[in-house]
Batch of 2 targets.
Target 1
Amino acid sequence: MQLTVALVGLGVVVVAMTLLWAVSVWKKDASIVDPFWGPGFLLAALTYFFVDGSYGDRGRLVVVLVAVWAIRLGYYLLIRNRKEGEDKRYQQMREARGAAFWWQSLFTIFWLQAGLLWIISAPLFAGIVSDGPLGPWDAAGALLFAIGLSFEAVADAQLARFKEDPSNRGRVLDTGLWRYSRHPNYFGEAALWWGFFLFAVAAGAYWAVIGPITITFLLLKVSGVTMLEENLKSSRPGYEDYVKRTSAFIPWPPKSEG
């Protein structure tokens, strides 16, 4: 039964991503996949919840927390993308692949993200289909989730305000949370997913560690820190100095203060 629930979740996410791809071809904007990242997890969580049908307390709590995170992130990315247009990553892919991009993007962007979303959602699935009462691991998971969400939301808000000020064009944001981490929003994202993993631990599903490991790896080595910093080092004159004194990921006092 649990395998069926998981596979139905995968199917729903793939169908949703395929429909989103069709819209992206019509709009000629692959960036619409980004605002769907958070809501995509909510879609997966709701699918697990209703198909499983056990409606346990842990499952209810996980769905509520996913909804809070997903709606905030989805709205933030939607507003950002409307202001900035198609992301440079997708523009570069579009230019490199030419006329073939429209159909290749289904596999290289939308279905790829569908697969990653399903894998990362492992702790959500484990928590939702589990039995048993809430306990200390669930409390720890909720606390870590709250810490991660706070970091992500505050860092995003600080970055948005910084970008809105024309006088900051070409400058480096090194105040607020960004004084202690070059990527506090990514740190928050990773932290909240480790929080979701603690719900899986409460359910005895240690295998669900594949979810937070995958998202942390992506944030650090693939689409997050590594890719973003390559562009920032070449486009922001003061970024090299910022790198030297500021922690890349985990918030920590700047070296100048050490």
Note: Residues 1-133 form one domain.
Target 2
Amino acid sequence: MKRCVIVGGGEIQNLSYDRRLIQEDDFIIAADRGYAHCQAMGLQPDLLLGDFDSYEGELAAACPILEYPVEKDDTDTMLAIKVALEKGFQDLLLLGMTGGRLDHSIANIQSLVYAVIHGAKACLMDEDLWISVITGGQQITVPYREGFVLSVFAHSDRCSGVCLRDLFYPLENGVITNTFPLGVSNHFLPGKDGKIAIEEGIAVIICNREL
């Protein structure tokens, strides 16, 4: 099945980079102010949704729109993820999800976790950042990126059976918790992809450019 790309209203520092990530057959959902990013990238989303409290421009008449009240439990990103899952998408790419308000960035990471624990493969990206999530029994290979560091954080109270391989600081059958950042700032080995696996729990994996 096709991939779903969700464009949020966070910061996008390099629009051309994000535009290159989007494939011709992707289903694109613009979440609220994410529509402005789509316009700047020359994209017509397949669906536009949100409460539109942060977007004040004209809405495309040809684009299907789902409008929600401002006072609601779900963020616009969460609404977009739920719609994507309802439509059967199991591969999600989230753009424009960080920068600006820290609480929004954290909420978007939690929404990413929601997508993964509901069966989707999902990641959040921009030019300097890649975030994904794995749950118990899963493993992931993180492609080598020169000048980037790799961190693994427990989203659940505890992650056990944690294995970090082909990284500068390896770990075998370890335990990480959400109260101590043991997995922060690991490093790639030259030219090698990092491999991460856990037996139990939920882990958030963050790969970002080293300043």
Note: The longest helix spans residues 102-117.
